[in-house]
Each structure stands twice: as structure tokens, then as C-alpha cells.
Specification:
The complex is a heterodimer of chains A (275) and B (497). With 275 residues, chain A is of the alpha/beta class. Chain A has seven helices and eleven strands. Chain B is α+β, with helices and mostly antiparallel strands and 497 residues long. Chain B has a five-stranded antiparallel sheet with strand order 15-19-18-17-16, with no helix packed on it. In chain B, strands 5-6-1-7 form a four-stranded antiparallel sheet, with helices on both faces. Chain B is elongated. The interface between A and B is large, with 72 and 68 residues.
């Protein structure tokens, strides 16, 4: 038996490091190199619950997932979206290579059920049930869900984690940033943050700052800078800015002109039509 | 020709038990016709009840010990059940004929090629009968009458069949016994002409059919064109959970029937009866794709049942299958169910995909499930559509679905090829992943414009749209898609989320 040396105790054959365990789980590369390097198994986990914590919707969370979704949509399985906050726009999804025929959209909170309006609690329960069912069934390659935070308990995340493992589904939960403080059984938790452009005048890169708040087999990793679109030179920034200045001045004029018309409620409409 | 006869020795009792929703038990139970016992279960035999004894005798035997359960025979139920059994056995042979009241005979010689050998076929037949809850005695012979005679008598050799099993009258049987005839072989050895003179031509014809000397045409069964079954319960059922068992019974039969006919059902019509056979509740269960397997039907039916209002007491459950279509079976992978198999992990069968859709629709309402579709128009909010109805014609294809109008195609012929090339080389249009519907008004001072403008304008003949679209960054950091209308009002139309 090899004798442990004081220089390198970690090479002792009895010692296993957490990072060595992760090889077994199937993953889908995210196609963002700096993110893949730190995600366990080198990509999004297929068969685990993954939480994306956002300060607000629309900062680039879908673009972060899009390459993986495009690869998953080639499989004969559903990609289910449960209660998305806005309409997932089919032409844009297709332009990113996602097959929209595989997308199943489930609207519970916003949809009405044959005239009967669901109570919020019932809707939350239904959404959770639908997500668990879809994850567990093994017929979904990915399940994306926006659940009602008020009714989401830590033990629900455990059920979702187990269901995702059974169905080998990439289950993504989109949650507000504040949820980072509450406990969750998700195997992977990422906090996303908008990253201002370094050279706003030259390029229009759309960038995200991704913090891995929790992962299996490793410590948290802060500050992974991900560029969502390849940086391209901005098309004639002067012209666009000039145009913007024009609109701004128009707007100011309108605002300045407003008090004169304030006594009449319908004043704004004809004024707007002039310009 | 190889004929397989199936005799169900306790058929009448089993049908009566099923109709009453009872489980086969060891407690004494008898079936009664005209105050005579015509079937008794092992429990009844133990206390001394015999087939043929009067009801009074049976009751006096029972009074000493346990209570005796009496069931009344219902000939119409028995013949209906036999018909159903025959139609379920249709999967083993194309020539199935009934031999009322309690036997079925099928020609299996030509089916052996499909099932491999006789023992595996017999095993499959026995398993099916067992699933349906019937005891069965199978016997084979080269003639249908011979096979039936063997099955009814229970003996293995035709020569040793006792003469009671022959379809002859009591008087004739007595005469044979007086002549010293006990077994079938003794009867066969007698000269035919003299036998005919003493016992009539009918017996001679019958012997000829058993031997195969005379033709024995049988009316082959034509499988029922529809499935409409019901179960009647003795005790009223109150809870919905308690209904699962009778529902599963009916579904098992439906699945057997569907497989034997090679059909799939896309609509189940459940009905629940209350007192006096009045219809209490209807429960249609639509499926997005014709299905054939129990699991698909049962799970969705359970979810629908939760949403259905039932009367307090349910005394009967009925099931009708509708929306029947020819079943398109799918080829399974060689290593189905092996989790390490890459294909099984990555793909699900169409039936499974439809199953999830049905289950979600059953609990959340069919309106909640939608599928996305992109349309070929340049007006952004009209370039997508949500499809609520499941796609029947081209389901689950890999190609993205595009709905191109014909006029567009004819127009495309006149496009200058150089222009088309230039368009193809141009960068694809920037479109947001999140769309707001309707667009939200916004103050332009909150935006920093990055790209644009892209003008979107419609013709005078349709709803006038004239907008300049910009890619912009909101002060909060969100990448937006904003437009300015001709009225100089700014709107937010989406996020590049």
C-alpha cells in the first residue's frame, strides 16, 4: 500500500474527491466554454433539477439555454414550458435551431379552465403537479417552469429533483433572485446577472455574469462572464444615436407642451398625431 | 387441421360472480336454475352440495355450517360473455366458433407458424383465460366435435371417454348402459347400420363427425364491430377510489378486444349508473391519439374521474369505445427498457408522447396545453400561433411546421435570383425570444438604442401597421425589442431573454 506523504495527501488511494463522482451523469453541453468548464460533467445535467435565479425576466436566460435546447429538440421528446411569463416567440426559437414541433406550452395561471377561474393556490398546485408529471414521465427532454414562489416549499424541490432523475429530464426552474436565500434541493443553482458592455460605443455584445451558487462535486464559482451573442460591430452608431436624439427632443417638446393642454383630458391625442 | 376446444367448466358461476362484482371465494356458493343446483364452487362441494341437487337440499346442508350464497343464472349474460370470450380468442385463430353454453372451438393448425409450436400457443391461450378469470379445460383433436367431446369429458384419449359426455338423451344413455357399453371405443367398434337402427341416424352422424368421416362445417365467428360493456355492482360504490377496480376490469377487456381486432381507440365513453339502471353521469375521455394499452387509458380515466361529479351511489359502470382507428404499432428497439441504451434514453415513442399530453389535458383542461407554430408573415405578432388541438395529420415530425400560403409560392417564382442570393447572405432577422402580447407602451428615455431601425409596414388593404423596430437596452439591463409607431409612441414588444 502506498504510504501517504505530507506533501500530497490528496493522492492517497483511499481518498476520493467529489469531482471524480460526477462522470456518471449524462449532460448536455451548454456550448458556452467557460460555463461548461465549471458545470459538473461539462454541461447541463440531464436528470437533475437546475435553478436559474434572475433579478428580472428577460436578461438572457433563454439564450443561455438555447443551444442546449436546440440539441435536445432533435430528440423525439417534448420540451415542455410551464407558465412562462411571456409568449415564447416561435420564429426566434426556430432561428436558434429549436424545433418548435417539440415544444409543449402549458398555461395554467393565465389560462382559464372552461369559464372557471382557478384560485391561485390551485393553479400553483396544478403547475407543480404538471412539472413533476412531465419530468417523471421520461417523455420530456427538458422541462422549463416558472412557478408561483409563494407556494413553492423546499420539499417540493426535492420531489422535482427525484422526478427529474427518474425521467432523465433537464428540469429548469426559473426563480427570482431572492429565492437564493431559501433552501432548495436542486442539484445546480445558477444566479444570473446583467453585465454591462465594456465597450458600449463599439460593440453591442449581450453579456451575462453567471454565478454558480451550488453544484455537485465542487464549490460555488462566482463571476463567469458569458457572451450570449458574438460581438459584432455596431451598425453605424452615430446614425442611430442621432435618430434617438431626435426622438428625445421631440418627446421633450411634447412634454413641454403638455401643461398648456392639461385642462382637457383628450388633449394628448391630437398633439401626438401632429408629430 | 388441428382443432383446439376450450371448455369452461364453471362458466355459469363465473359469469354470475362477475356480474355481481364478487371475487371467487372458498365460501360456499351455488348457481341455481329452476330450484336445482347447476354449478357449485369447491366450498359448496365440501359441505356436500352436488350438481343436480335441489335448492332445499343445498340449504339444509348449509344450515349446519356456513351460509350458502345463491346466485341466479342469467342465460343472456352467459351467451354474451361467451361471445366476448370468442372475440378475444380471435387473436389466436381466424376460425373461432361457439359451442353454447360453455365451450369454444378454434382451428389452430394454421396458427402454429405464428406462435412457434403448440405448447407456446396453448400457454398464451391459458394465460388469456386466466386473466379474464375463467377456468378452462383445453383439448385438441383433428375434428372440432372430437376436440369438444374430449374437453367436455376432461379425458385425454377419445377411446376412454365415458358415454355420459356424449350429447345423447338420458333414455338412450340408459339403453347403452344396459347393453354393457361404457366407453366411446366400445361404441365405435359396433357396426354402423345396426347402431343406426337402434339409436337413430343422429348418433351415427355424430360419430361420423367425431371420426372425421363426415364433414363438420362450423360457423366461424365474425368479431364484434364495437365494444360496449358494462358491469353491475351488488353493493353501491360511494368513493371514487373504489371505482378504480371495476374500471380496470372493463379496460382490460377493452384492451384485449382492441388487440384482437388490431384497433386503437381515441375516445372512451364511460357511463355511471345509479339506482334502477338510470344513467347518472357521462364521462367522455378524449385521447389525442388512438391508444391500445391499459396504462394509457387507465391513468387518463382516473384524472378525468377526479373532475367528474358522480351521484352518491354508483351501481353500474359502462364503457364504450369510440373513435376507432386501425392501430399502427410501432417498432420497438431491440433492447427496450434498457436504461443504458442510448436510443431509449433519447427518444420516446409516439404513444408515450401522446400519453403525457392526455394526462396534462385531463387534469388542467385541454385548453391549457398548446403547441407553438410559426407562420409565414412579416407582422411580428401574427408570425406565431398557439395550436390547442392536437395535430392529427402530421404529428411529431422532426421538420418545423410552416404554413405557407400558395399565393406566396407562386410569387416566389418571379423573384430575381440575384436578389434572393443577396437576401440569403444578409444576416437573419433579429427577433426576441419573449414576445409581449399586446405590446407595452414605454418611455423612450429609458432605452438605449443599439440596432435598427427595421421597418415593418403592411399594405393598405389590411390593418394598418407601420412601425420602426429597434434593438435596445433598457436601463435595467434587459435587452429589448422596441418599436416606434407613426404616432411617435414607443412600445416594448419583447425581450431577447
Amino acid at each position: 500500500m502506498q504510504k501517504p506523504t505530507s506533501q500530497d495527501p490528496l493522492h492517497h488511494p483511499d481518498i476520493w474527491r467529489a469531482g471524480q463522482i460526477q462522470k456518471a451523469q449524462a449532460t448536455q453541453p451548454s456550448s458556452f466554454a467557460c460555463l461548461d468548464a465549471h458545470l459538473p460533467g461539462g454541461g447541463w445535467p440531464l436528470g437533475s433539477l437546475c435553478e436559474l435565479l434572475l433579478p428580472r425576466a428577460g436578461i438572457g436566460e433563454l439564450q443561455l439555454l438555447a443551444p442546449a435546447l436546440a440539441a435536445l429538440s432533435a430528440r423525439q421528446r417534448w420540451i415542455i414550458w410551464i407558465d412562462p411569463p411571456f409568449v415564447p416567440y416561435a420564429p426566434a426559437l426556430e432561428s436558434l435551431g429549436i424545433d418548435t414541433a417539440k415544444i409543449l406550452l402549458v398555461r395554467i395561471r393565465h389560462g382559464r379552465d372552461q369559464g372557471e377561474q382557478r384560485t391561485q393556490k390551485k393553479a400553483a398546485q396544478d403547475a407543480l403537479w404538471a412539472l413533476e408529471k412531465a419530468s417523471r414521465s421520461g417523455t420530456c427532454s427538458a422541462a422549463l417552469a416558472w412557478l408561483d414562489e409563494r407556494y413553492l416549499r423546499p420539499r417540493d424541490t426535492q420531489r422535482l429533483q427525484v422526478a427529474a432523475g427518474q425521467g432523465r429530464t433537464l428540469t429548469c426552474l426559473f426563480r427570482p433572485e431572492q429565492a437564493l436565500e431559501s433552501a432548495s434541493m436542486a442539484a445546480l443553482r445558477l444566479r444570473l446577472e446583467h453585465l454591462p458592455d465594456e465597450r458600449p460605443q463599439a460593440t453591442n455584445a449581450h453579456r451575462l455574469n453567471v454565478h454558480i451558487a451550488k453544484r455537485r462535486g465542487g464549490w460555488a464559482v462566482p463571476n463567469l462572464k458569458v457572451t450570449l451573442n458574438p460581438p459584432a460591430p455596431r451598425p453605424d452608431p452615430q446614425a442611430v444615436q442621432a435618430q434617438l436624439e431626435l426622438w428625445r427632443s421631440e418627446r421633450q417638446q411634447t412634454a413641454a407642451g403638455l401643461p398648456l393642454w392639461q385642462h382637457s383630458e383628450t388633449a394628448e391625442a391630437p398633439l401626438e398625431r401632429v408629430h | 387441421m388441428l382443432w383446439l376446444a376450450l371448455h369452461f367448466p364453471c362458466f355459469g358461476l363465473e359469469v354470475a360472480e362477475r356480474r355481481a362484482g364478487l371475487q371467487p371465494e372458498t365460501a360456499p356458493r351455488i348457481l341455481v336454475r329452476d330450484n336445482r343446483v347447476i354449478h357449485c364452487n369447491p366450498g359448496a362441494k365440501d359441505i356436500g352440495v352436488r350438481v343436480g341437487s335441489t335448492l332445499a337440499t343445498a340449504q339444509s346442508l348449509a344450515s349446519e355450517g356456513a351460509t350458502l350464497e345463491q346466485l341466479r343464472e342469467d342465460p343472456s349474460q352467459i351467451s354474451a360473455r361467451l361471445q366476448l370470450m370468442a372475440s378475444l380468442l380471435y387473436r389466436f385463430s381466424s376460425e373461432v366458433s361457439l359451442d353454447p353454453p360453455d365451450a369454444v372451438v378454434l382451428e389452430v393448425g394454421r396458427s402454429l407458424g405464428l406462435f412457434g409450436d403448440f405448447s407456446s400457443l396453448e400457454q398464451a391461450v391459458m394465460t388469456l383465460c386466466d386473466q379474464l378469470g375463467h377456468q378452462v379445460v383445453p383439448r385438441t383433436s383433428s375434428t372440432p366435435s372430437g376436440a369438444l367431446l374430449l374437453a367436455r369429458s376432461g379425458s385425454r384419449q377419445l377411446a376412454k371417454v365415458p358415454l355420459q359426455a356424449l350429447p345423447v338423451s338420458e333414455k338412450q344413455y340408459e339403453r347403452m348402459a344396459n347393453m354393457g357399453l361404457r366407453t366411446f371405443s366400445q361404441l365405435q367398434r359396433l357396426p354402423v347400420r345396426e347402431l343406426g337402427q337402434r339409436f337413430g341416424q343422429e348418433l351415427v352422424d355424430y360419430l361420423g363427425r367425431v371420426d372425421g368421416r363426415l364433414p363438420d362445417p362450423r360457423e366461424a365467428l365474425v368479431p364484434a364491430a364495437e365494444f360496449n360493456e358494462s358491469l353491475h355492482l351488488l353493493d353501491p360504490i360511494r368513493g371514487k377510489q373504489a371505482l378504480y377496480e371495476p374500471m380496470q376490469h372493463l379496460l382490460e377487456e377493452l384492451c384485449c378486444w382492441l388487440t384482437s381486432c388490431g384497433l386503437g381507440a381515441a375516445l372512451l365513453k364511460w357511463r355511471f349508473l345509479s339506482h334502477h339502471q338510470t344513467l347518472a353521469a357521462h364521462m367522455p375521455v378524449p385521447l389525442s391519439k388512438p391508444q391500445q394499452h391499459l396504462r394509457a387509458f387507465f391513468d387518463v380515466s382516473k384524472l378525468h374521474l377526479e373532475r367528474t361529479a358522480l351521484p352518491e351511489d354508483v351501481l353500474g359502470v359502462g364503457l364504450e369505445a369510440a373513435g376507432l382507428e386501425v392501430w399502427q404499432s410501432e417498432s420497438l428497439t431491440l433492447f427496450q427498457g434498457n436504461l443504458n441504451d442510448d436510443h431509449a434514453q433519447q427518444h420516446a415513442s409516439e404513444a408515450e408522447l401522446a400519453e403525457l399530453l392526455d394526462q396534462l389535458g385531463a387534469r388542467l383542461g385541454m385548453q391549457a396545453c398548446m403547441r407553438l407554430q410559426s407562420l409565414d408573415t412579416h407582422i411580428p405578432e401574427k408570425a406565431w400561433a398557439a395550436e390547442r388541438k392536437p395535430r392529427r395529420k402530421r404529428p411529431y415530425t422532426n421538420k418545423p411546421y410552416t404554413n405557407k400560403p400558395h399565393t406566396k409560392r407562386s410569387h416566389a417564382r418571379h423573384i430575381d435570383p440575384r436578389q434572393a442570393q443577396r437576401q440569403a447572405q444578409a444576416a437573419p432577422l433579429r427577433r426576441p425570444l419573449w414576445l409581449f402580447s399586446p405590446p407595452r407602451p414605454i418611455d423612450v428615455t429609458q432605452l438605449r438604442l443599439l440596432e435598427g431601425p427595421e421597418r415593418v409596414q403592411t399594405g393598405w388593404w389590411s390593418q394598418a401597421v407601420s412601425r420602426d423596430y429597434y434593438v435596445a437596452e433598457h436601463t435595467s439591463g434587459a435587452r429589448c425589442w422596441a418599436f416606434r409607431e407613426a404616432s411617435s409612441q414607443w412600445y416594448l414588444h419583447g425581450y431577447f431573454g
